[in-house]
Amino acid sequence: MGVAAAERTLAMAQSQGAECDAAVPPDKRTIAALSHQGMPIAFSGTIGMLYPGAASAAVLMLGPVGYEELCLRSTWRTLAEALSQAGIACLRFDYPDLGDALDATEPAGLDDWYRTAHAAADLLRQASGCSRLILLGQGLGGTLALHLAKELAPVAGCVAMAPVGNGRRYLRELAVWTRIVADRIGIGMDADDDTGCAVAGLRLAPARLSAIGGLNLLDLDGPYCDKVLLLARPGHAGDAALERHLAERGASMTTLAYEGYEMLTTDPTAARPPLPTIATVVEWVAQCARASQMPVHALAAARSHDLQPAALHGEGFIERPIRFGPGGRLFGVFCEPAGEASRSAIVFVNAGRDYHIGWARVTVAQARAFAANGIASLRFDTSGIGDSLADPEGPDEVLYSEEQIDDVRLALDVLETRGFRDSILIGRCSGAYAAFNAAVADARVRQLVMVNNERFVWDPDECVEDAIRYAHRSVGDFGATLKRKGGLRRLLTGQLRVGPAGRYLVFRFLKHVSIRLAPVLGRLTKHGRLRRECHRRFGVLAARKVNVALIYAQGDIGMAEFETYFGRTGEGISAYRNVSLATIPDADHNFTHLGAARRLRDMLLETVKP
Q1: Mean pLDDT of the chain
Q2: Terminal CA-to-CA distance of the chain, rounded, Å?
Q3: Which of 246, 310, 503, 590 has its CA 20 to 30 A from that of 182?
Q4: Dihedral sign for Cα atoms in the order 281, 287, 289, 292
Q5: Hey, is 331 helix, strand or coil?
């Protein structure tokens, strides 16, 4: 029964645009993997992920927004998978203007968010065969869950994870959060942003902010469902007040501490799914839904002809969510022109653990701009990032790993099966490293764009965790410190004490000096070999006549790596006529501000030609 039903799910997935290994028919193991990973689906101008189950109720997941959503994307995916593995069908999706959804022409309040949630509820009921829903929301999504419980009845229960209790207070917190993140990454407030609430460049329209400001959960007449699970932040007065308010109105309340919340919302690269918290939520939902104990990976009543095609039609582009790679564990969005497309297509590679929309959602804007210029693209998540599952046999850290490079080549396979040739790779930061090395390894790449690249060759003695944590500290500034007041002598004699960040910068400083001196000290030293390997790789691209563009934000920390291998004035790059170098003024490493993002997009459009 399970396999037969899963085969029907696979058929529906294929009709919706999901992809698995095309070379051979999927076996039962592949079918099972696809079913519990979720099925990409498009509806009502957005993209979602539908997960199978056989319980008496299904879960509609209402996600957080903005920077919180960027940080929690992997957690949200992991939670959905855990629900499905417990036998509970669920659906997660993006609100208009956010994630992979279409942009609203003139956003007015939150009405279109509510309409999308209603459409999602209808689709989930139809696909799962469940009339009862459980609404599960995080942050602002938790607020929407409690507000929508009456309209989406019958609702068996609500889960509110760190909900926004008071909209006005939330907007003040967003403003503070915006300044904190801006200070942390070393930029000022965005002069082009008229809201002051664009945390990490993720901007909501003023009309939406105004509507959010009017939300107040203490104004609710009732919970409109019998059971509520509140994951409360320790010491948060608003969560305590909400608990009392809902209990006084007859809700059967379960309130638990939200373990791991602060770490989750600090940084998307540092955030990891809090497995104990996820297990707690799944247990409560399973009890609420009276879930079957039998692990059935099948949608109870899925009929492919009942669902809309998995495509978003925007102005000048069409987008389809796809799964690909071994067992379909990788996820991406294929964006193609509405009209004729060039024979070349782009693969966008993750920067850090920012999922495929990119920091400040810049990758979505870039992909759609390229489609308007006749160039298709695939933005996707490598293993363990965003909407892609980790490889159980892969490394604990995928950044700067061979596996991530292999994932890029799997993305090239997707373009090839769709008839595209002469592929183009675009990556920023660690994504530039993966794109560079994939281009060296794969002759299908004809053009490579590296933005703010920080590594050309990985030093096996360097700790990836330290590099991720401390890489944006300035090695140049540390070198200047050593030159002052006998700093180098004090360091070597142990008189100058440094912490973990300092020790990492010492490592980077000595590596920088050693590689620069490699022509003098000899190629047989470790750093001499790194220098030789870097130039060998550039030589491979030159021999294949791959067009390589190096783009840096003016003054970016990645320039230190460039100068290490090619000289302070870049004289060493002149040996490679296929390589160009450009800088973008008034931009941070992530291109957070609206103007910086536009300047990067314009340079990419100018650099990449069909």
Answers
A1: 85
A2: 49
A3: 503
A4: positive
A5: strand
